[in-house]
Amino acid sequence: MTALVSVRDVHRRFGSGPATVHALRGVSFDVEAGSMVALVGRSGSGKTTLLNVVGGLDRPDEGTVVVDGDEVTGLDEDGLSRLRRERVSYVFQTFGLIPVLSAAENVGAPLRLARTPAADREQRVALLLELVGLSGHAAQRPSEMSGGQQQRVAIARALAASPRLLIADEPTGQLDAETGRSVMALLRAVVESEGVTALVSTHDPVMMALADRVIRISDGQVDA
Amino acid sequence: MRTGLHGASIRGRIRADAGPLLLSALVVLLVSLLAGAVPGLMEKTADEAVRDAVQRAGNSAKITVSARWEPDDTLNGRARLPRLADDVNDLRLRALDELGSELQAMMRPPVAAVISPTLKVTDGSVLRTFRMAYLAAGDGPQVTWTAGTAPAAPADDTAEVGWYAPPWRVQVGVSETAADLFGVRAGALLKVADERGNTKNVQVSGIFRPVDPADPVWAEAPWLLNPAADADGAGTTRFGGLLTAGSLPDARLAFGPDELERTVVFSPDTTVLTWSAARTVNATVVSLQARSASSNAVDTTTTWRTGLDSVLDEVTAQVETAEVHASVLLAAILAGAVLVLLLAADLLVRRRSPALILARQRGAALTALGAELLAESALVALAAAGAGCAAALLVTGGVAWLWVAPVLVTAVAAVPAYGILHAASATRDRKTPANRSARRWARHTGALRRAAAEIAVLVAAAAAIVALHQRGLGSGLPVLAPTLAVIAGAVLLVRLLPPVTHLALRWSLRSRRPLAVFGTAQASATSGRALPVAALVTSTALASFALVTAATVDHGLAGGAQETVGADVRADLTDDAAATTDETARRIAAAPGVTGVVTGHVTDSAQIVADGRLVPARLVIVDSRALTGTALTGAQALVRSAGDALHEGSIVDILQPGKPAVRLTASGAAPAVGGATEVVIVDVTAGLPAPPNTIWVTGPGATQATDGLTVVSRTEVARSRRAAPLVAGLLRLTWAAAAFLLLTGLLGFALTAAAGAPGRWLTVSRLRTLGLTPRQGRLIAAGELLPVATVAAVGGPLLGALVAAMTTGPLGLRVLTGQVTDPATVLPWAVLAAVVALFLSAVPLLVRVEAALRRRLRLAEVLRVGGPT
Ligand SMILES: Nc1ncnc2c1ncn2[C@@H]1O[C@H](COP(=O)(O)OP(=O)(O)O)[C@@H](O)[C@H]1O
Ligand SMILES: [Mg+2]
């Protein structure tokens, strides 16, 4: 199998002078296409920073990131926008839904940006909502849904434009254990059914068990 | 500190939230300066206006007292009364006494004058006229005799003159200037005759030079010093003969028993006349005139005549109108200021929300939180108000606290009030009710409360407008009418906006443009906030109202000047010059650049009976086709009336002394003629004697063509009215109010944008993780601001224009524009379009600024747990 993501010697520092925080110190690893990788580490170990760099939301000070054959670290703003529109999607701890749009419209948002024809869009939104078990909640606004439901909508949205890579940063962090577990199971299931590669940071042992591979990170470095 | 308030923390927070605080301070400062200074400035301007009006009125503002002479007839003729000058002086003292001390203080020392009728000089080809005058004021006027001697009494100073004796010799002095001009020498006999051709025996006893030509006494007969051109008709030159106490009795004998009038003239002292004194002066003047002897009394009782009361009446009406207008504008300014202060407070509390909630959760009492916020806002507000009031004090010497108070109270109380409400509601134990009906009930009561407030605003606005239309502009409710009407309109627009943006969202969801969807989604999410929309619409609408008012006054001034003059230039000719009017008119008509010349006879206060009622009116006898474009028959008249005394169909009788009245039928409406309220226009064929005394000239060359005549020009009238203190002051205040309200509108918009910015850019960031480019993100941010901006930019000016159209009539602007009727509302389209452009262009500008402020904030940070702050 080929690597969909390859990270080479990535450094990321915050601040300057004596207050400099060296959040990533030479991180390197590969993620195989179609696999689900759990990124594990204590709070403050650099998980979020790493995911942001991989997904092109942040730039490393040193090192390269290649996603699906494109060097993310070399892309300009428009290139990054296209990458996010077409190949990489995110699921955040705080869900990140658009509050004024219904669940269905939130899921359909990436398809609108991709200018998918309306009929196809509606069909795919319906399919995805069914996939995440929220067919009956299509018209609800995020504020009218529980946290678990919101995260399911977020997962459906992340899958909408059929990305190659799904990045999830502690997707269950704001959910209770029970709900978190079901969201994890859902994530695992959709990775299978949609054929997407997933990079998920987590504290949750259940997630680790579900993952194809676990990368441990501490103090900005990947544990051997 | 013992109170537990930490000075340091207040200072720290002030620094952290410098933006909204500075902004509030700026608004408080500007308003306390404007509102504090305007009433004082108004008072000063009113004083100036009174002086200006009196000065402009010239002779008609003077008070003239006259009394008949003691009879001088004897059995065989008339007796020379040697003490005549003493009689004149007696009259002067008597008038001074009757005037009363209060009025004396407002008047310059009285001048007694005896002025002869106009005589024609019969010796030459040039048109020269001659008058004799005796002037007395205390010990003036002083002259020195450069040749000959002062006029003196004949040896027999108690002579008797028989009825048929030859003309009695009068000695006069002639000024050096006149003597040089006409080659008159001491001892010369002047060849003069009255208009009936009776020659007079006038001898120049000496040539004099005034000790002080600027002595105000000379103003009563300036031609005594310098010959006056055109005083008695075009091409004439009038010069004068000075009488002395010695020769005054001879002058009386030279004319018919009552041809020589003795008068005492009081000129208002414009250096001491004030607005507050004007009312008492007016009352006294009216009563003096009322007590006057009727014109056919045979005794020597004084007769008082003056136009001062009507001058003061007019200026009083103007000052009152201007004062009320200033109040209307100040009310608008206060409304704009209060709303923008509320927006600033709202923003401040939003920014402090986390800290407030934290403090509350840690157990801080609401009162303690409130006190701390109060201390801070009081510090800022009082400092700003202090600076503003100090400036107002410097400018006007006083501060109108009543106007400053509302803004100060808002500035001090808004933040603590909002803060307490916010902290209380955010940390209240009582959560949203669990059961559905309770939730609905809570929602309903909220909606009911809001609806009740809105209805209250609408009712107040309606009441104010009705009061304005019924009672006219006075103090109280009508002054608030424009502001309340605008607020009511803003409330309606606030209600209208959410459904409109909601519709737009529904429509855009069906469109294929993703940006439209996200933009309208953001817009519909935020358009429900009532305060920003209300504040912005109110500001732009009131600014537009002020701009429309300014344009209306401006336009009205031009219209008023047209009404007053009736053409580009009007030449008013004295009766003596009327004989040459037609020739003059022909000469003018032949001049280049003159497109129209109309001559007519104008009589003020003609005795006219309309439908059996006496209606003094301005009578204009004219070639009706030339003046109005339609020919009247000899039995028709055009009429114009402020009330209903003259109307179409009225039977109009024009009374003539010693002749039967001419009866006409009013067949239509007359144009305004010279600002008179009652006008009757009659054709020359109606059979009324009409030596033309007025020439109306139109065309670009009108001014040149009438050079040398006494003329009133339209542009000159408009210019001088615009420069009059009240009008100029009010226009300045109107512009200042418009500028201030536009400023509060823009500040309000910036505050609104700042309050929504965190949420807006969080959404933009979220959308950017879905692949939106930075530019598309800015477009969506702009889309969110656009509805509010559009409502303010378009709805505001429309609302302002509508309110102006509803209120300009009752606002009584005609008093200021000099028009007969109230001016029609004038919409300055270009200026209003500029307002629209200003607010619409603020959107991309604000978005650029917001984006620039967030450029250093990376997406990665925005989306970290907790989101951006
Ligand atoms: N914007 C920033 N400025 C300074 N330090 C930062 C910033 N973002 C992250 N850090 C620091 O980098 C380290 C890694 O943080 P993060 O990637 O969020 O860890 P994790 O997601 O594993 O909890 C932490 O020490 C954190 O304090
Ligand atoms: Mg993290």
Automatic annotation (TrEMBL), chain A:
CDD domains: ABC_MJ0796_LolCDE_FtsE (cd03255)
Xref: SMART domains: AAA (SM00382)
Pfam families registered for this protein in UniProt: ABC_tran
Occurrences of domain ABC transporter (ranges): 5-224
SUPFAM superfamilies reported for this sequence: P-loop containing nucleoside triphosphate hydrolases
Alphabetical UniProt keywords: ATP-binding, Nucleotide-binding, Transport
Gene Ontology molecular function, alphabetical: ATP binding; ATP hydrolysis activity; transmembrane transporter activity
GO cellular component, one term: membrane protein complex
Record Gene3D superfamilies: P-loop containing nucleotide triphosphate hydrolases (3.40.50.300)
InterPro entries listed in its UniProt record: AAA+_ATPase (IPR003593), ABC_transporter-like_ATP-bd (IPR003439), ABC_transporter-like_CS (IPR017871), ABC_transpr_LolD-like (IPR015854), MacB-like_ATP-bd (IPR017911), P-loop_NTPase (IPR027417)
Keyword Ribonucleoprotein assigned: no
PANTHER family associated with the record: ABC TRANSPORTER RELATED (PTHR24220:SF685), IMPORT ATP-BINDING PROTEIN (PTHR24220)
Descriptive protein name: Putative ABC transport system ATP-binding protein
TrEMBL record, chain B:
Cellular component GO terms, alphabetical: plasma membrane
Location of the protein in the cell: Cell membrane
InterPro entries in UniProt: ABC3_permease_C
Keyword Membrane among UniProt keywords: yes
Coiled coil stretches, renumbered: none
Statement: the UniProt record of this protein carries the keyword DNA repair: no
Residue ranges of domain ABC3 transporter permease C-terminal in the record: 736-843
Keyword terms of this UniProt record: Cell membrane, Membrane, Transmembrane, Transmembrane helix
TM segment ranges: 21-42, 328-349, 369-394, 400-426, 447-468, 480-505, 785-806, 826-847
Membrane topology note: Multi-pass membrane protein
The protein's name in its UniProt record: Putative ABC transport system permease protein
